[in-house]
């Protein structure tokens, strides 16, 4: 029998790998249901669903390697990043999934709540929090929703020989701001944004991308800390926030 590897484990979700099979167990079965439906609808490479029996989902491994990891330089070529941009554009131009996306009022409320928590607990200097809150405001504007991945971290996009072989972890997919996906993928890898946009297309407001970098980093910090992750590791969320100063 192959060794069982814990890919990620926290109170909400656990992912295990056994050979070429990934087993995901989620405390909220609705997340896995969204993931399965989103992968069926998305016109981009996704993992093969082996079986789905709530609260568990088994997926086949995708070929290739991730574009990189947060906190370390990406070893992927500019061509691989451009290929990722082209595939993401295909996703964003696809018909919308049938379920609704996030509401701007809810995003704003969460952002204000998380900034208050960061300030009250002195997690970051006040001026860093306040400056990034100002920058984040630009993302909170009306936009045309697109079919988005919703959690397009750099570890979720796999390439091989400069071609995208699979995009994983679709539980947050829905109707949302397409620039949020681009910002999430380049979080902590700002130097790769030109390469990504070479494939995606240049009709992108860079100020909004920067706003989403700040907004995502501020909003995610408490969750990361409370679930055993460290946003203060080099190159991670807190460095992204400090870089705005």
UniProtKB/TrEMBL annotation:
Instruction: Extract the coiled-coil ranges from the record.
Output: none
Q: Which residues form the Aminoglycoside phosphotransferase domain?
A: 42-204
A Pfam family of the record is APH
Superkingdom classification of source: Bacteria
PANTHER family documented for this protein? AMINOGLYCOSIDE PHOSPHOTRANSFERASE DOMAIN-CONTAINING PROTEIN-RELATED, AMINOGLYCOSIDE PHOSPHOTRANSFERASE-RELATED-RELATED
Q: What is this protein called?
A: Phosphotransferase
Organism, scientific name:
Kribbella yunnanensis
């Amino acid at each position: 029998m192959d060794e069982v590897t814990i890919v990620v484990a926290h109170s909400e979700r656990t992912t295990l790998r056994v050979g070429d099979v990934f087993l995901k167990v989620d405390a909220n079965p609705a997340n896995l249901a969204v993931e399965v439906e989103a992968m069926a609808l998305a016109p981009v490479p996704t993992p093969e669903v082996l079986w789905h029996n709530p609260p568990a989902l088994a997926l086949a491994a995708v070929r290739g390697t991730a574009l990189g990891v947060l906190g370390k330089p990406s070893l992927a070529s500019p061509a691989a990043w451009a290929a990722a941009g082209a595939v993401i554009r295909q996703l964003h131009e696809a018909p919308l999934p049938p379920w609704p996306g996030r509401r701007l009022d809810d995003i704003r409320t969460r952002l204000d709540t998380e900034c208050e928590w960061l300030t009250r607990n002195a997690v970051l200097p006040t001026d860093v929090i306040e400056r990034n809150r100002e920058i984040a405001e630009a993302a909170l504007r009306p936009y045309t929703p697109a079919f988005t991945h919703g959690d397009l971290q750099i570890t979720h996009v796999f390439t091989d020989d400069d071609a995208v072989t699979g995009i994983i972890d679709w539980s947050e997919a829905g109707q949302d701001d397409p620039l949020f996906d681009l910002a999430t993928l380049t979080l902590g890898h700002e130097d790769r944004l030109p390469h990504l946009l070479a494939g995606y297309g240049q009709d992108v407001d860079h100020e909004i991308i920067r706003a989403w970098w700040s907004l995502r980093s501020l909003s995610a910090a408490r969750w990361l800390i409370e679930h055993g992750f460290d946003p203060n590791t080099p190159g991670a969320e807190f460095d992204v926030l400090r870089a705005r100063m």
